[in-house]
């Protein structure tokens, strides 16, 4: 009897898009980060989100084109291996683990602080953050333990709720005609966009898209992956880019172009709550408090599922311990990888708590920052890998997809990484020494990966030689029916 595998043909385009958009946590990004973007870039901030979306859409052109030629669950590291070779591919795999784990584990701090803030705002109760974060770890473990279609349904509900409250806010502003001076499109004029603060806005905007490329991780579980994966990628990028820009523009109209920057500076954490209270009602602000917590939970579940599938793929490659490659016989989930990731998260969370760290300013921001930079570095490597890959093989793809788009994406992503690294204090609020350490983690892990590749080549040549090879199993077939117990 063969070992259980992930359930094939389970996820459609919408399901995969839910995972990606949920990981971005739109409500949390808007209420928590957009006020900072307004403070830094003024009323031209909405354009920063559009420019970031355009950059990543250009990247997606080459990325999704290459996905038609690469059948692997390893996502970034498989693509990078095809372009650069095995050593860089193994290094990229370690950066991917750093990136996704950093993006998830840090958010447990946000879960604790957001829940504490919500409890205090609604009921006047002060809740300690650590028990909340540990409870979140248990809930997310269970969500990842269950079948992937269970996770897709949960994320679908939570995503509709968090985007719905933002649409409600924007709709209220539009119906009321905005502040006293009325609605205006001045945010999109060159004079308000080409200002010194736009560079910092772009850094915030790129961070808001982190994880969008994880569509490819679900290839094995997707229905007709050659179509659903590219579609989900474009839908996620387009939705996030336009939605972010629209919501930020609506908040500008809510306060007025002359007052919004000062309002954001006076109370960045309360900007969105003040707007929805004024244009919809206090009940909507209370609901937004609750939905921020569920938004964080959705982001955690999406990243948890992505990490588990990366760990599963690396275990199957022989790079990580084989036990992490076990799949649950009923739920068809990488349950051992999920348990290991949960334990790692608990160790980090408890460690920060024991050190007396702030859950938001330190656990979230310090752990998220190298994760964000790591994932952006992977995007850059993948863009260059597309160029190198299509130079090596015969293909019928056009030059726009295989040369122009990946080259443009590489240039733009290089600039984006430079902006984020230069403005890293915006994300961490830390000292120069801490910032240097956090940024240095990514190249340090890359070098560690190169050393691991060298060690594998010398001691386990068969594992090294087969790294990121095309799978030998049969092509993706029709969906497997989900047993009733897994639904």
From TrEMBL:
Q: Where is this region: Disordered?
A: 468-487
Source domain of life is Bacteria
* A Pfam family: AA_permease
According to its UniProt entry, the protein's GO biological process terms are: transmembrane transport
Q: Does the keyword Transmembrane helix apply?
A: yes
Where do the Amino acid permease/ SLC12A domain residues begin and end? Answer: 17-450
- Please tell me where this protein is predominantly located: membrane
Entry GO CC = membrane
Compartments annotated for it: namely:
Membrane
InterPro entries from the UniProt entry: AA-permease/SLC12A_dom (IPR004841), APC_superfamily (IPR050367)
Q: Does the keyword Membrane apply?
A: yes
Its protein name is Amino acid transporter
Species of origin: Streptomyces violaceoruber
